[in-house]
Write a structure and sequence with these properties.
Layout lengths: L1 H15 L2 H7 L5 H13 L5 H8 L4 H10 L9 H4 L4 H14 L4 H13 L3 H14 L5 H7 L4 H10 L6 H10 L5 H10 L23 H30 L6 H13 L16
Length: 280
């Protein structure tokens, strides 16, 4: 109960900006209180590089883990000691922080490559692969490609870590990931593979009509049919006009004339230039 009270005071100190209370917690006998003191100082903007480096050597991994996390925003602090930590939770946090720093020294990059391939802890390998992808140094590519053959969680991280790289090996790894038995690995590969440009759509050919048929015989037949219908329609109008003039009686010869014109297949419409029987 007493410890929980101290923890509460340290958390409140971070929110209220009470630096003396927070700094006193750095030397507390309780490791939880010490890591809470680090968090309180970071919240109020008073955590120094010396505070972080001192915490790197803390006896408890909980404190070292918290210190490694805070080093993520301090690229001038080397995470190499934390990458060699005997506790895997500290190594995982340090690998993540190295990826956040982006720019790292050669010895840190080399250790990340080693962890990505040889670390016994799965989470440490996964964090190291992700960090190498975030850093984007070509020297880390072989370790990332190795991760593409690891456990599913690491394969997913490794495929995503290929984003800043290109080349035949990267393309081959992505194509292989498209066939992975884990759907998340396949999804990650699909997100990174370039999308092919859509094929141009072919325009449909216009439907052929009787008048567009290249055969002269078809053209002539269509024109003849059109002329026959036009002549028949004109004759029918003439018959109708004559019938109106004789009080509805129609001479039988008019129908005969109509039948002759309709059956003759005259070419073209009937107009004033063509001789037509006098139906009046």
């Amino acid at each position: 109960m007493i410890e929980q009270t101290r923890w509460r005071h340290l958390v409140i100190a971070g929110h209220e900006g009470n630096e003396p209370v927070a700094r006193a917690g750095l030397t507390d006998s309780d490791p939880v209180a010490r890591q809470l003191a680090l968090g309180a100082l970071e919240r109020m903007g008073e955590l120094t590089d010396d505070d972080v480096l001192t915490a790197f050597h803390d006896a408890d991994p909980v404190v070292r883990h918290r210190a490694a996390m805070f080093a993520a925003t301090r690229p001038h602090i080397s995470l190499l000691p934390m990458l060699h930590d005997p506790d895997p939770t500290v190594v995982e946090a340090a690998a993540w922080a190295a990826g956040e720093q982006v720019t790292v020294t050669d010895d840190v990059l080399e250790q990340l490559c080693s962890l990505a391939v040889h670390a016994d802890d799965v989470l440490s390998r996964e964090a190291a692969v992700a960090a190498l992808g975030a850093i984007g140094d070509e020297r880390g590519l072989p370790a990332i490609l190795h991760g593409c053959q690891d456990k599913p969680a690491i394969r997913r991280r490794a495929v995503l870590a290929l984003a800043p790289f290109d080349g035949p090996k990267v393309t081959a790894a992505l194509k292989a990931a498209l066939e992975d038995r884990d759907w998340q690995v396949r999804q990650a590969a699909e997100d990174l593979m370039p999308t092919p440009a859509p094929a141009p759509r072919k325009r449909a050919a216009p439907k052929a009509s009787a008048t567009s048929d290249p055969k002269p015989s078809t053209k002539a037949a269509a024109a003849k049919s059109r002329g026959s219908k036009t002549a028949a329609a004109a004759a029918a109008d003439h018959v109708g006009e004559h019938a109106n003039g004789v009080n509805g009686s129609v001479d039988g010869s008019l129908f005969a004339t109509f039948d002759v014109i309709a059956a003759s297949g005259v070419d073209g419409p009937v107009d004033g230039s063509r001789d037509t029987p006098d139906l009046s």
